């Protein structure tokens, strides 16, 4: 078994480690949105209104956006395996608290802590996955983490919703806590002991992260996720009011979206290894186009279904490439912190898109949402097409690796158009 310079194996151990990270991401992803399916039951038993119960979703998102980076900053010197186990342990504990007969405020606090652990776990898992494989396979490794989250939305959330309506909703959180404990044991058993890249203090890592190339990628994540959630947040209402889809058929569209998203994540991982920059650019164009097309399709259920599938494929497909580029741009000096900020930027976009969707729907109705969503995604093109101002930071600048002898998508395009 060959070992990389950080001690991670790339043979059978690497494959088992990636599988453990993907399964753990599935557990974390299931808990994120499972609460939506049982929100009405939680509101009743916690003696709060449905609107107040919705704060459980907001608290989780804020935990990811703010708590994840703060925890990452506080644990920069902690080895990754230990940090992954700690994040899963905190996650399990937070879900246990949510399952207990406590007041709404305690459940709200537990969801905030769970969100922070989620943000920390996803960021560290992406960085760890990239460190387990050679340079030419890093995109596919990062895609394993995102695929776990995508499959959670496809399978885990519906199962949790069904269980929450067949059994007391507290059982859902208890089951997630148990799965998180099992994931912790699996991670501890198969993830190699790897020190965090660079092992540098917070100030040094921030100097690598607070650079224009990294900030541009984080802004791209906010806009691409935010644009999608302008429509996705109100997709059920849009399908019913504008397309004329009723009843259980709405769930079929969501299933199509989730299945396409899972496939897009896998394909996006392969594309990230070949042309990461071009993958993000193409995905942004496709998203803007398909969301704008939904504005024109109107009451054509089959055509809308096809558009939703393309949307799901592209909407999940760009994520591995964008996360991989963020880690690379920060380099060894800030890759771990940048990975967590990448996950936070996506969730910040989700929160902003959801808030915008509520305001737009109240003011103008559902019909304007696709066009606004397309416009927001289109705003990323000036960012994604900017020329690369500096090389990625990190030890690769001193010791070139295979990763840097292969130009990314933007450099390939530039080389074709450059004058001889």
Characteristic terms for this protein:
19 helices, mainly alpha, 78% helix, disordered C terminus, 420 residues, disordered N terminus
Brief overview:
By secondary structure, the chain is mostly helical.
Number of strands: 0
| Average pLDDT taken over every residue | 80
Helical content (DSSP H or I, runs of 4+): over 70%
Please give the radius of gyration in angstroms: 21 Å
Count of individual helical segments: 19
CA-to-CA gap between the ends?
44 Å
**Sheet with most strands:** none
Residue share in β-strands: under 5%
Broad structural category: mainly alpha
Residue ranges: pLDDT <50 for 5 or more in a row?
Answer: 1-10, 389-420
What does this structure look like?
This protein has helices at 12-37, 39-45, 50-53, 55-74, 80-99, 104-131, 138-166, 170-190, 202-209, 212-232, 235-243, 249-297, 301-317, 319-330, 335-364, 369-378, 381-384, 402-405, 409-417. Helix content is 78%, strand content 0%. The chain is mostly helical and 420 residues long. Residues 1-10 and 389-420 have low confidence and may be disordered. It starts with 11 loop residues before the first helix and ends with a helix. Helix 4 (55-74) runs antiparallel to helix 15 and helix 12 crosses helix 16 (369-378). It contains 19 helices and no strands.
Question: What are the SSEs and their pairings?
Answer:
Elements: H1 12-37, H2 39-45, H3 50-53, H4 55-74, H5 80-99, H6 104-131, H7 138-166, H8 170-190, H9 202-209, H10 212-232, H11 235-243, H12 249-297, H13 301-317, H14 319-330, H15 335-364, H16 369-378, H17 381-384, H18 402-405, H19 409-417
